[in-house]
Specification:
Glutaredoxin, 8 helices, 4 strands, globular, DSBA-like_thioredoxin_dom
C-alpha cells in the first residue's frame, strides 16, 4: 500500500471498484478537492472487487441493473456532469486493478485510473480483457510491453489482495467508502463516508478532520 506523503495534512483512503458507477460518480468531487488542496491532501485509492471469482457477475441486461441505473445512476450522473451509460458487459475487475497498480509505479496512476472508469462507463469497453487494458494503458501513457508483462505474470496481484484483505479487516462490504483522517493518525480517528456522497458532505468532513489535525 502507498505510504503517506510527508507534506500531506489530511489523507483519504478510498476503496472502490471499476465496475461500480457510484465510485466513478464520486471522482469529480475528489478531483476538485485534490486540485484545491494540492500537497496538503493525499488521496489513496484501494482495490475492492465487488464480484470476485467465483461470485457470479450481474446480468448487464437484467432488471436489477436497469432499475438501479434508472432510479439512481442516471439522475446522479446528470447532476454531477458525467456522461455515464449502462455498459453492455459486466466484467471482473481484478486484472484492471493490477493494471492501475502497474501504472502507479510508472507515475501514470491518475491517467490510468480515469481511463478505466471512462472506458467502462462511457465507452462500454470490457475492462476484464487483457487487450482492452493494454489499449487503455496506451491511451493513459503507460508503456505497453511492461504493462503486458506485469499483467501476464501477476506482478501486482498481491497488492490487490492486500487491499482487499485490509477492507475485510475493516468490515467493508460495499463501495465506495472513504476513510478520512489527519495524515499519520491512527485509523480509529478516521471519518467514514459511504457511497457517492454530495460534495458538500465531503467538504464538511474535510473541515472536521482538519480541526482534528491541529
Amino acid at each position: 500500500m502507498p505510504t503517506p506523503s510527508s507534506s500531506a495534512a489530511i489523507r483519504i483512503d478510498v476503496w472502490s471498484d471499476y465496475v461500480c458507477p457510484f465510485c466513478y460518480l464520486e471522482l469529480p468531487a475528489l478531483n476538485r478537492l485534490q486540485r484545491e488542496e494540492g500537497s496538503a491532501l493525499e488521496i489513496v485509492w484501494h482495490a475492492f472487487e465487488l464480484r470476485p471469482e467465483p461470485k457470479p457477475t450481474l446480468d448487464p441486461h437484467g432488471e436489477y441493473l436497469r432499475t438501479t441505473w434508472a432510479r439512481s445512476v442516471y439522475p446522479m450522473a446528470e447532476e454531477r456532469g458525467l456522461a455515464l451509460k449502462l455498459p453492455p458487459v459486466q466484467p471482473r475487475s481484478r486484472l484492471a486493478f493490477q493494471a492501475v497498480a502497474h501504472a502507479r509505479e510508472q507515475g501514470r496512476f491518475d491517467a490510468m485510473h480515469e481511463a478505466l472508469f471512462r472506458g467502462f462507463f462511457e465507452q462500454g469497453r470490457d475492462i476484464g480483457r487483457l487487450e482492452v487494458l493494454l489499449e487503455l494503458g496506451k491511451e493513459a501513457g503507460v508503456e505497453e510491453a511492461g504493462l503486458r508483462d506485469a499483467l501476464e505474470k501477476g506482478t501486482h496481484l498481491q497488492q490487490v489482495l492486500d487491499d482487499e484483505r485490509m477492507a475485510h479487516d475493516f468490515g467493508i462490504t460495499g463501495v465506495p467508502i472513504m476513510l478520512m483522517r489527519p495524515a499519520g493518525a491512527p485509523w480509529e480517528q478516521s471519518v467514514a463516508l459511504r457511497g457517492a456522497v454530495p460534495e458538500a458532505q465531503l467538504r464538511a468532513a474535510l473541515a472536521h478532520v482538519r480541526t482534528q489535525g491541529r
